[in-house]
Every structure is written in C-alpha cells, then in structure tokens.
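@channel sequence for tomorrow's demo:
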Amino acid sequence: MSEAAINVRNGKLVTVNKMTKMAKYSEAFTVASLRALIFNSKSRKGRKGELIPANGLREAGAIIRIGRKVLIDTDAFDNWIHSQGKA
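structure tokens (generated this afternoon):
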C-alpha cells in the first residue's frame, strides 16, 4: 500500500490532490473538477431561493470529512461514477 492511500473497509481514502495524481483518475479529473463535485454534493439554495439538488456523491459515501480535511473513498467514487450513466 502506498502512503497516499489509507485502506478503510477494503476501500481507499485519498485526498483530492493525491486522487488527481493516480493513473486511473489523472486524465479524467483535475483538482478543480473534483472540488466542484464535492461542492455540489450538498443541496443548496440558488440566488432566487430555488433548491439546487445535490449530485449524490455524499449519499454514495464517497466523501469523508474530518475537520477541514476532505477524503474520497475511491471505491464509492467509482460506484457513483458508474451509477451516473444509468439515470
């Protein structure tokens, strides 16, 4: 196991920066795109008061917050990615 990943329940937790350096994700995701997905993982109100729905990433269990640190469970993230095409 590399020091960039922590095994949790057979999954791996990585930081946003480390995830973008992994070969599996480096071509598809930038730091900015992952941060946008994390930001949009929670429902929020728009400027006119309308509810903007979440993207489901948090409900999928892919985002883990410990204080200000944000970790991504790569297995849950992969499952979330595959579920997006089935909607």
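heads up for whoever presents: The helical segments are 16-21, 23-26, 31-39, 74-84.
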